[in-house]
Write a structure and sequence with these properties.
Layout (H helix, E strand, L loop, with lengths): L17 H12 L40 H7 L4 H12 L8 H16 L8 H31 L2 H11 L11 H10 L6 H13 L7 H11 L9 H13 L16 H9 L5 E5 L14 E5 H7 L4 H7 L2 H13 L10 H15 L6 H12 L9 E2 L3 H14 L6 H33 L6 H12 L11 H7 L2 H19 L8 H11 L5 H10 L10 H10 L1 E2 L1
Antiparallel strand pairs: 1-2, 3-4
Helix pairs in contact: 2-11, 3-4, 4-10, 5-6, 5-9, 5-10, 6-8, 10-11, 17-23, 18-19, 18-23, 19-21
Length: 560
């Protein structure tokens, strides 16, 4: 089996690993190897490692619909029957026109098999889909080969007869209950005579020797018949046979911008089957116009949305499709800060914002673009930091009193640790419960408030932050949440979310009331939060507490 130099070792071509890739290639193809996207396949520097392509739930920056990520595909491989079909249809139904008619037929055929074998999951159904489709394809091919043999006999071409009989020998019917392992071995190790194109080419070459005037009609008909061999572009069975085979053989011709040969075979297949739904890295400034291939120039979009724009200048594309601008804002709000805050740094957010400003500068007088840039630049997020600063003296004094009570001098060292653990849990529960009480108050206001729809929107925002951000979190996760910048960013995000919710009414909305809502809903620094932060960062790996750290944090009011 050929090895693709592009996916060798899954190196990221374009960074420091470039030299490692070339040295690896030299061992296979010689020291004169020179990598480029034209002689080695698709350039995997085109966003292969762009993390936002793989964050579940990220909306497409262009159409706003959820994209198919590796996590989604991994889930598909575990589903069975109706659930498997529904998950596939969930993505296909987003944009059926993105799939060719033959691909849609192949998907329908595959779904029927999944429904017929509801005990098989998305991975286990692949050998069945392959053998069933291959058997149907073989019968179609057999009818064509037999007709070709008739014409070969008619024109007296023994060479063609021998060739077709040899080709027929490769069409061995496989057992429908063949295992994934056995099928993979069969596909990797089988001796292949020719694929469709090779068969047609050879037949044309052979009969060319017999193109005499008296048998020209027979030869014309013969070529017409052999051209009807099932093709993956026109026959759903041939499509499934081709792409299941490619996945199980780990064929390097699979589009490695979106998948890696290190992936599970089933993931490779579903990535190909549902390719238009996959997330991709879209260049804001086109690559063909010297746009950079790095995150500062990437938006995550569906493959179909990416291909629709092609190399159109970004400013022209968005002015002709203004809804894209609203979806880009939706995309940016989703990715940071949120429960996914650790997946990408603020640096990406700031870099892509600067890039969008640059690309749209030439059309900034357009009213829609101007409104978009105003909203875009109103998002002021601070870089990631775990520093927590308690500036209120009363807050610090309250925590000092709580800690001193827990580590009273008449307690033994072990009991002190247990007492501090208990204090930590009390602070967590107290803060979460206070948040829940605020939610309950908001619910009571819904029926009586003139802006009940807004209150409900704010309630949903608040509900998403409580208690999920505090319960069952690791030390690193809690340190992210209990930080000055996280609290600041949450306020900015909520303000922008309300701005979007209110639309044109935002400018006329009472700003004092707006700030009052934000103050109620977002985190604010309390003795409980400061105490949690202090204890969280003073605990040793063995479960004991470092009292010198506790003293240091309480005296300075700063914890990192």
């Amino acid at each position: 089996m050929k090895i693709s130099p592009v996916i060798l070792n899954n190196y990221y071509v374009g960074n420091s690993a470039y030299s490692n890739t070339c040295s690896s290639l030299n061992a296979i193809v010689g020291s004169n190897c020179h990598y480029d996207k034209y002689n080695a396949g698709l350039d995997i520097n085109f966003g292969y490692y762009f993390k936002l392509k793989q964050i579940k739930g990220v909306p497409c920056a262009y159409c706003g619909k959820p994209m198919l990520t590796r996590g989604d595909i991994k889930k598909i491989t575990t589903l069975r029957g109706v659930e498997l079909v529904n998950e596939i249809e969930k993505f296909v139904s987003q944009n059926p026109s993105a799939f060719s008619s033959n691909t849609k037929e192949a998907i329908k055929s595959f779904e029927l098999l999944a429904m017929s074998f509801p005990q098989k999951n998305g991975k286990e159904i692949l050998p069945i889909a392959y053998t069933v489709s291959r058997t149907r394809m073989i019968h179609k091919q057999l009818d064509i080969y037999n007709k070709v043999l008739e014409y070969a006999s008619e024109i007296g071409c023994q060479e063609l007869t021998d060739y077709i009989n040899k080709v027929k020998e490769q069409d061995v019917i496989l057992k429908p209950d063949i295992s994934m392992e056995d099928l993979s071995n069969f596909l990797i190790n089988k001796i292949q005579v020719e694929y469709r194109k090779g068969v047609i080419s050879n037949v044309v070459h052979i009969v060319g020797k017999f193109s005499k005037k008296e048998n020209i009609d027979s030869i014309t008909n013969l070529i017409s018949i052999i051209s009807r061999l099932p093709s993956s572009k026109t026959d759903p069975d041939a499509y499934l046979v081709k792409y299941i085979s490619k996945a199980l053989r780990k064929d390097p011709k699979i589009d490695n911008q979106f998948v890696s040969m290190a992936d599970d075979e089933a993931i490779l297949f579903y990535s190909t089957l549902l390719l238009p739904c996959l997330s991709s890295a879209e260049h804001v400034k086109p690559y063909s116009d010297n746009g950079k291939s790095n995150p500062s120039n990437y938006l995550a979009t569906h493959v179909w949305c990416n291909s629709k724009r092609e190399s159109t200048k970004f400013s022209k594309f968005v002015t002709e499709n203004p809804v894209v601008l609203r979806n880009i804002l939706k995309y940016l709000r989703y990715i940071y800060p949120s429960n996914n805050q650790k997946t990408y740094p603020v640096k990406y957010f700031n870099d892509i914002r600067a890039n969008l400003n640059t690309e749209l500068d030439c059309v900034k007088d357009n009213q829609v673009v101007a409104s978009f840039l105003n909203e875009l630049n109103s998002l002021h997020l601070k870089p990631h930091s775990t520093i927590y600063t308690a500036t209120d003296k009363n807050t610090i004094a309250s925590v000092v009193e709580l800690v001193n009570s827990a580590i009273a001098s008449d307690l033994g060292h072990h009991n002190r640790d247990a007492a501090l653990d208990n204090l930590y849990e009390q602070c967590i529960n107290s803060y979460v419960n206070s948040r829940r009480e605020k939610i309950a108050k908001l619910i009571k206001k819904l029926d009586n408030d003139a802006d009940s729809s807004l209150i409900f929107f704010v309630y949903k925002q608040m509900e998403s932050l409580t208690p999920s951000l505090f319960i069952d979190k690791s030390k690193n996760e809690l340190n992210d949440i209990l930080s000055d910048n996280f609290i600041y960013n949450q306020k900015q995000l909520l303000q922008d979310s309300i701005r979007t919710f209110l639309g044109d009414e935002f400018e006329n909305f009472n700003q004092d009331r707006l700030m009052g809502i934000i103050k109620k809903v977002c985190f604010k620094k309390t003795p409980e939060l400061f105490c949690i932060k202090v204890l969280l960062n003073s605990k040793n790996n063995d479960g004991s507490y470092d009292f010198s750290k506790i003293s240091k944090y309480l005296s300075s009011g700063i914890v990192q």
